[in-house]
Amino acid sequence: MQVGIDMGSLTGGQPAKLDIEELLATRLLVQGNSGSGKSHLLRRLLEQSAQWVQQVIIDPEGDFVTLSDKYGHLVVEGERSEAELAGIASRIRRHRVSCVLSLEGLDVEQQMRAAAVFLNAMFDAEHEFWYPVLVVVDEAQLFAPAVGGDVSEDARKMSLGAMTNLMCRGRKRGLAGVIATQRLAKLAKNVAAEASNFLMGRTFLDIDMARAADLLGMDRRQAEMFRDLQRGNFVGLGPALSRRPLPIAIGEVETQARSSSPKLMPMPDAVADVEDLIFTPDPEEFTQQLARRSRPAPRPTTDILAELSRATPLSDAPLSRPGKDNAAPEIDSGEREQRINRVLDEILSDPQSGYRTDAALYQDFMVRLRMGRVSGPPMPLHAFRRRVAIARSGVDAETAESEAWATALSLSAKVSEDLQGVFLMLANAAIKADPCPSDARIARAYGTHSARRARRLLGYFEEQELIIVHADFSGKRIVGIPDLQAETAPGAADAADEDAGSAEAAE
């Protein structure tokens, strides 16, 4: 069934039609700076198509919840657990209910996680429920950022993966993505590239104008026109709109957002005793409780892993299968320590282990212990970090038994856990009078490729009065540790990291 909805008017006054059936197969990208009328366009699209197709709106600002009053959209608040959101999304897909996922009140990372869980649950619906759904994502650059920002890498990958599934693989499952963004440059290219229909509004930055012109197949010299577009005016192109770029003035809407653009209004008349009015609290203020919409921050992965490591079984009886005894054989403490050391050596022998997070290494460590049938209480995460820091220092057995090394261990407690491996490596070199580690070697011990960051670490240690950095007559670096009464031999700061090079060559 072909349904053409009225989006507004063309230059000559003819109606601008959008083919919903074609849109379901080809997706839509809307771009425009703040105030260009993107939300107005999305609202027009949703109102005109509400009777023809199921709709799901990912709404970071809560602007589209007013659709529920006139069109019956179910409002789903994002302040729910992931299990609740996944269950709601699954039932919405099954029963073909239009809804608005309102993420207002959540911080950006929580919005990304909630949207990802909701979209993934819709994407994973069983085949019999693959009904057509128009999935509208406002401010899509928040959920599919081109580069990492202040959010965790885990949340970014989770959200970007859900958006990629929606735009790249959602068509076969009946999911038609309509994404709106303020800036194309901030939107992941693999997400934007899957749209075949475009509505480009007012924009001022050269990079965004050039990219909009490229998507519309226009000459770069014509990109300047996007600066002159009025609010609510867009240039449309695509199989659901037009085979060539056409200017479209978006029509009126029947519902309004809860928030709107600020309007000028006259200032109030001057009030006498304004200081008393402002600085004297009203008695009612002391009886009112401030309502804050907030959620606790998600628990760090490291804390969850540490809790799992301390978990105890529900029963003291060993788990077993019929005819088999799966209980790990008891081993003495000496053999257990040897096995733990072997597992640590295996993990840290990987040249890329220095660039993995402690949480990932710890998870790998726990899995290998279970695979090796190493019984006994699990090593806590903080103890694992300490062992890794000592192992990365390169200390040998003889040095580890010395009094100077015991002093170095106590000094390392003055810095954070992520810096202890670097400090102990410097201490080991100073105790044995080895050449001073290069910037590349220090960077690898810290888990980075940046030589500049390595030099900043040395500066930080010097500010904490843990080390003294100076150079010999040839310009080679020397690091002294006053509390150990020891210093390294001269070493070239720009020397290559031989350990990393030999490890890569061995591979």
UniProtKB/TrEMBL annotation:
Residues 24-213 form the AAA+ ATPase domain. Residues 495-507 have a biased composition (Acidic residues). Residues 309-336, 488-507 are annotated as: Disordered. Keywords: ATP-binding, Nucleotide-binding. InterPro entries: AAA+_ATPase, ATPase_Atu1862_pred, HerA-like, HerA_central, P-loop_NTPase. The keyword RNA-binding does not apply. Gene3D superfamilies: P-loop containing nucleotide triphosphate hydrolases. Signal peptide: none annotated. One of its GO terms (molecular function) is ATP binding. This is ATP-binding protein. It comes from Hoeflea ulvae.
